[in-house]
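User: Could you check the structure of this?
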Amino acid sequence: MKMGGWLPVTALRGLLPLLASLCLPVTAQAQAPVEDLTSREQAIQRSQQKTGSAFRDLQQAQFEAKLAEQDFLNAQDAQAAAQKQADEMKRQLDAAKKALDAARSKVAQARKRYDEALGGVDSAFQKPPAK
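Assistant: Sure, the predicted structure tokens are below.
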């Protein structure tokens, strides 16, 4: 498993809700009562809130992209290892097929020699005995 910094990727995913909850109380405290503000101040505050929210979204997206990249790299490593193993298995299969073909060829040659020898025995039995 690849590591994201000093924590495993799965542990980092578990921190997402905690990180989000830590960000929320800070923004709640920064808000002033709306009725005390001028329209310009209200616009500034809304803009700042939108900016803060967009920044948190950006950070969340960057974090998720980092996790997705780590997942991709892990999957790529696993695929490479699987391909290496598949190549080795193919090599073993080819070697076993070659050995099987050689063994079958030896069986055919031995059967031919046996049949020839058996034919010689049959021929010998068909000849009249020597007197």
